[in-house]
Amino acid sequence: MTYLDCSVTGCMYNEDRCCCKGDIMVAGKEAKENSGTCCSSFKERGQNQSRNAVGERSKEIDVACEACHCRFNKDSKCAAEHIGIAGGNACTCGETECASFECNCR
């Protein structure tokens, strides 16, 4: 399990910087920098949704990862102890990113 700090307050799964989904997927198979990644599990919070009603909030979460150039990707799972997902008031998954991505392509 990875410790997740999520700043994407526009996501329906976010509650107090915690993810209530239980697991997420970081996309960006060919990413070479943070901006090439995104949280593909993102779902926009509707106008009338103020809080998550999906699951229990947790800072520890399973993170699947498609970013094969990230040094933390081990067999399509994030092996980092702590990651951040950035995107503030994102309206689409493309407006989010893995803030902890580190390219291993040097």
Overall description:
The protein has 106 residues and is mainly β. It has one domain (2-98). It is built from no helices and ten strands. The protein has strands at residues 2-6, 14-15, 18-19, 23-27, 38-39, 60-65, 73-74, 77-78, 82-86, 97-98. It has a six-stranded mixed β-sheet, with no helix packed on it. Strands 2-3 form a two-stranded antiparallel sheet. Strand 7 (73-74) and strand 8 form a beta hairpin. The chain is globular. 37% of the residues are buried. The model has no long low-confidence stretch (mean pLDDT 90).
Category by helix and strand content: mainly beta
Report the total helices.
Answer: 0
Overall mean pLDDT stands at: 90
Number of domains: 1
Q: Main β-sheet: number of strands, strand sense, barrel status?
A: 6 strands, mixed
Over the alpha carbons, how many angstroms does the gyration radius reach?
A: 13 Å
List the defining traits of the structure above.
two-stranded antiparallel sheet
State the gist of this model:
The protein has 106 residues and is mainly β. 0% of the residues lie in helices and 31% in strands.
What's the arrangement of secondary structure elements?
Layout (H helix, E strand, L loop, with lengths): L1 E5 L7 E2 L2 E2 L3 E5 L10 E2 L20 E6 L7 E2 L2 E2 L3 E5 L10 E2 L8
Parallel strand pairs: 1-9, 4-6
Antiparallel strand pairs: 1-6, 2-3, 4-5, 7-8, 9-10
